[in-house]
Design a protein that fits this description.
Elements lengths: L8 H9 L11 H10 L4 H11 L8 E6 L5 H15 L3 E4 L7 E12 L7 E13 L4 E6 L2 H18 L5 E3 L8 H13 L4 E12 L17 H13 L2 E5 L7 H8 L3 E11 L6 E10 L4 E10 L16 H31 L5
Antiparallel strand pairs: 1-5, 1-6, 2-3, 3-4, 4-5, 7-8, 7-9, 9-10, 10-11
């Protein structure tokens, strides 16, 4: 029975849903907590409860951009120092132990919680940035928040000023994909082609549409149940986005109907079995903050370690930091590769002569 701020009704419902127990969102919080406490828990379940009860430092979603230059460690640290001087004592910036190809930056700042009406409270926030340099590019990984994006923009400007040239930025976006099929294929190809993992179930999807004209939704006017079809057309003409949670959602008739009526994927969460040891169950999440425009790509990972009996815990846990870096990089590389394949196929189709 932690405070409502730390263990809300939604969190309790999520913990129960992980056990495939579905309760009404209108349920009383005390009743949900009592019911959850009455269930058997193993070590990993208890660890998950403790983790859920802790204050989350910030959103666990991550974003990344590629700078089309191999920046040196000295350049990056100089820009970080310039940013620290510009903000003064209002923010605390530190650079832990780094290497020649990787620079870590930790940011601590205060954020005002405007949701409180009687008292404006300042909350301590943290943001971790990673500048990873390879042969030709510098990949920057950062929290998927507006504050982190603004800080990164300031650092980029300091680097541009030092080089006396604009820094070319390559952010992953699908705004050039104007086909619903291409937008959906981007997500489905990532989860299907993730190296080393096999999809077990899809637990959460979000779809949207940019065409709001009811006449182009594709309903069959010859359907026997005209009243039902008219009601569905009326409903879909005013719905711009739909969120679904459950198991194996892409196999449901509701999901298939949405795709055939002009909707496309903007977010998906799935769980996959790891082929190699330690054969854990990993939960991947990928989405766009602006689903319609296909911008601000963000992603997250959680996992359930494999137990001695060969099964996995019901609660998804935070991935250890060293392993998390590899999983995030796996998402990034897979997303880049699948997007390139879609663009290459579109370019190839455009150059082929059409048959008459």
């Amino acid at each position: 029975m932690a405070s409502p701020k730390r263990m809300s009704v939604n969190v309790l419902l999520e913990l129960l849903a992980d056990r495939r127990i579905y309760c009404s969102p209108l349920s009383n919080r005390n009743e949900l907590a009592s019911y959850l406490a009455s269930l058997p828990h193993d070590f990993h379940d208890v660890a998950g409860l403790i983790q859920k009860g802790e204050y989350v430092r910030n959103s666990d979603r991550t974003a990344f951009i590629d700078i089309d230059l191999a920046l040196t460690s000295a350049e990056i640290k100089s820009a970080i120092e310039a940013y620290q001087n510009s903000v003064g004592l209002s923010e605390k910036v530190s650079t832990p132990i780094s290497t020649a190809s990787r620079v870590n930056m930790n940011l601590e700042y205060d954020e005002i919680d405007y949701s409180r009406t009687r008292l404006i409270q300042r909350q301590k926030k943290h943001a971790d940035f990673v500048f990873d340099t390879s042969d030709a590019i510098t990949r920057v990984r950062f929290p998927a928040t507006d504050k982190a994006r603004n800080v990164l923009e300031e650092i980029k400007n300091f680097i541009s000023a030092a080089r006396r040239a604009d820094i070319p930025i390559d952010a992953l976006t699908v705004s050039d994909l104007t086909s619903e099929a291409d937008r959906t294929a981007f997500f489905m190809n990532i989860l299907s082609n993730m190296p080393g993992y096999r999809v077990r179930t899809i637990t959460d999807v979000r779809v949207a549409k940019w065409n709001e004209d009811p006449s182009e939704l594709g309903f069959d006017d010859d359907n026997d149940d005209q009243e039902t079809e008219a009601a569905r057309a009326s409903m879909l003409s005013v719905v711009n986005s739909v969120s679904m949670r459950g198991q194996n959602l892409t196999l449901t008739e509701e999901y298939k109907n949405l795709l055939t009526n002009g909707f496309f994927l903007t977010s998906i969460t799935w769980r996959a079995d790891q082929f190699a040891d330690p054969r854990d169950l990993v939960q991947f999440e990928i989405s766009f903050e602006d689903g319609i425009q296909g911008t601000n790509f963000r992603y997250a990972v959680r996992y359930s370690p494999r137990r001695e009996g060969g099964d996995h815990g019901k609660t998804m846990l935070t991935v250890p930091e060293l392993r998390k870096i590899g999983l995030l990089k796996l998402i990034e590389e897979t997303a880049r590769g699948e997007l390139k394949k879609i663009r290459d196929n579109k370019a190839k189709s455009a150059t082929q002569p059409k048959r008459v």
